[in-house]
Amino acid sequence: MAEPVEQGHPLLAAPPGRVVLGQVVDQLADPGAQLVGEVGRRRPDEPVDLLDEGVAHAEQRRARDGRREADSVGAMRRLATTDVLLLTAVVIWSLNITVTKYLLTEGIAPLAYSSLRYGCASAFLVALGLGLERTLRVRGRRTLTLIAIAACLLWINQITFPYAVDLTNATTVALVIGTVPIFTALIASAVGLERLAPRFWIAAAASFGGVVLVAVGSEGGLQTDLGGVLLAVVTMATWSAYSVAVTPLMQTNSPLKISAVVIPLTWIPLMATGSQQVAEQDYGFGALFWLGFAFTVVGPLVLTTFIWFIAIARVGPSHASLFTNLQPFLAAIFALVLLSEEIGTLQVAGGFAIGAGLLLARARTVPAPVE
Q1: Which pTM was predicted?
Q2: Spatial separation of the C-alpha atoms in residues 122 and 305, rounded to whole Å
């Protein structure tokens, strides 16, 4: 405990003579040093001007203070710019669910959607990767094994994601996104990357209880939307596992290179799985459909690859987590406003329960949100 400080007038603590002497010594000490220095530096016939020296010191101090102020302003501007980047990435990911629901409602089959989307993204990322990285070669048995695991997880993820959005409403899928940190922590703990604090299990119980409320309160009812809710849970679990798998890869490779390798490898089995739907699909959609489809390719899969990891490198994952927490709620708002979906009292309660669990178990490392 700090000792109390007795306040009083500073001149009352010492005799007057002592105060005056102290003031005189203080006033003489600095000029005396300046005088000796000036005499030592100047020629015998050169006069000493303490006024010029004092002005020079003052100018140096002002210049130093100016640099510090400029550095501080620059840091604040970089932080503000980075916050804009983070918010942009989260908004793009949040809007993607609503746009995906619109595209599926317009008549594109789920697997045809995923196959075409990942095919276009693969072409973009390979071209960018070769242009900026010069090579997409990766080495090491462990690296290749992790890439193969990541591609398999993403393949499952991109099968379950469009079917989840197709079988239930976008609001429900958006709220279930809040379980991603819980699944990520569970998987990281299972593979020995992280120890879970006791309060985590309270957070997990709150989040999964929230999912039950979201499912029960869904617009179509539990019997109608149960399949979509379960697929949404699998989507979040596979995305969390994918995030854990690629984390070691990001330590020795750029996010662009990893994306340019993993996404094309994901597209190969995805195309094989969805080939029948791709062949039978009628592609006579309007301009708005193709504009939305272009957004789902360029925005969540290509643009945010740069935005997210540039921002993470600047401010770290803890700061970024403040923005990822917004994704399920922004996604739900987009679905409610743009698709005119309805949300019931139970789903609102479930959303708050998931949010409470998310805050309790906020991870130290932050995976990019679901694409």
Answers
A1: 0.72
A2: 13
